[in-house]
Each structure stands twice: as C-alpha cells, then as structure tokens.
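Record format v2
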Amino acid sequence: MKSVKDLMMRQPDEIKGEKLYEGKAKALYRTPVDGVMLMEFKDDATAFDGKKKGTIVEKGYFNAKISAILLRYLEECGIQTHFIDQMAERYHLVSELDMLSVEVVMRNIAAGSLARRLGFEEGQVMAYPILEFYYKDDALSDPWLNASHIKAMDLATDDEVLCLEEKGRQVNEYLQRFLQPRGLQLVDFKLEFGRDSEGVLILGDEITPDTCRFWDVGSGDKLDKDRFRQDLGDVEDAYKEVLRRVSQEVPLCG
Ligand code: UDP
C-alpha cells in the first residue's frame, strides 16, 4: 500500500498498525503509508479529569461525521488541518503531526471553568472572544497557561504562540459563520495543533460536541457533552441533533 487511495480501498482493521495512543474518546494507529495515521472515534466519555466515566451510545459514529464536516469546512476556509478523509463510520485518515502539549480554548459566552474561575454568570456574552491556553498534562489536571509559561517551558516558540492566537480567532469566526445559520450557538471550544514534517503548525484532533459547547440558538438548550457532565439526559439525541444540523445545506451568513 503506497497511497491514501490504497488505504481507502481497505477496511480500517486491515490497515491498523501500531497503536500510538488510546484515550477515552479516541485511539490513534499507524497505517502502512508513511505519515498517514488512522484515528478511531470511540463511544467512551469522561468528565471532571476522568472522575466521571461513561459511554454515550453511538458517540463515535456521530463525532467522526461531525468532525469530518467541520474540518472539511475549515479547509475550504483556508485553515490547514490534519484531516484527509473519513473511512468507514468511525475512522478518519489524518496526517501525522508532532502535537504541541498546549490546548487552545476560545470562548464567546461564559460557561464551565471560565464561569467558575472568574465569577461570570453562565450565558454572559463576552465583549471580546477570550483565548486561553492550557497545558496538556493529566497529572496536573491540564492547568491554565499564558504565553510566558509556554516560552519558559519551551512548549512552543514565540512565532508559534502568535500563530495559535491567530488561528484560534480565525477558526472561531469561521465556525460561528457556519453554525449560527444552523441554529447552533458556539459557546466555547478547544483546539489542538501540531507541527508537520516541515514544522508548519496544522490544526489536529477533532471538533465535536465533546470539545465544543453548542447551545440551541432559540431555546439555549445544551447540545454537547455538558448533557453528560451535568446528567441532563438525552445525551445521544444531542449529538444526533448536532450532526443533523451541521449536515444541513444552508447559506453562510456574514
Ligand atoms: N475542553 C476539551 N477538553 C479539555 C478541556 C476542555 O475539549 O480537556 C473543551 C470543553 O468541552 C469546552 C471548552 O473546552 O468546550 C472549555 O472548557 P472548560 O475550560 O470550561 O472546562 P470544563 O468546564 O469542561 O471543565
């Protein structure tokens, strides 16, 4: 097998090589093609630093589709991503990246840890989208970072930090333009980036209701992992509804 086309003609199990990573929500495997990885979307879910564990039926199926649609859309907007193609129902072929240990969180509306930490009412609209960095380290519970921590800890260069800020804000604009006309308010979300073989920063990971907060524009109903975190019920229905909405063909606004 020499190319992505060859990989696409097989079943995921036939091209699964060494498992490089397995978390609750995803697993990552090598494939026979250099630089191409297989990402599996799983049904398992965790919250509160892994203290709450569970399964969301068909989550892997919904998330693989949702993330494929949103990453393809971002590519069309000119944001380079690791996404190559979707395979079977729960798999993406993705480009190999050297992932940064930094998460980029963008926030348009106060919720979650922002509301807890700074005393905002949940639902308060931010006068300016907030960009935050977090250190990916389970043992430290993914602490908050600023640019000088990133520099001191050598997690990314100054230019890369600028690039993360620029891309985080661009992705926020593009996603809101896509989601708003589909009745989804983008409250906040997390992105992860990695370096390609030339050292260029590329958007990796996933964009799903596991990693974003989506509220229904009309009712404010939560259509994301908060339904699992907060035991709100109808968790699967929320993921299914997000897939239905992002699959709709509607004109872009703005
Ligand atoms: N998030 C994520 N992975 C993490 C932490 C946060 O995908 O390890 C997402 C989360 O789903 C939300 C946003 O980033 O959309 C902001 O999360 P927050 O800091 O409010 O943390 P939480 O309330 O989830 O503990």
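The mean pLDDT is 97.
The pocket of uridine-5'-diphosphate is lined by residues 105, 111-114, 142, 188-190, 211-213, 225 (CB under 6 Å).
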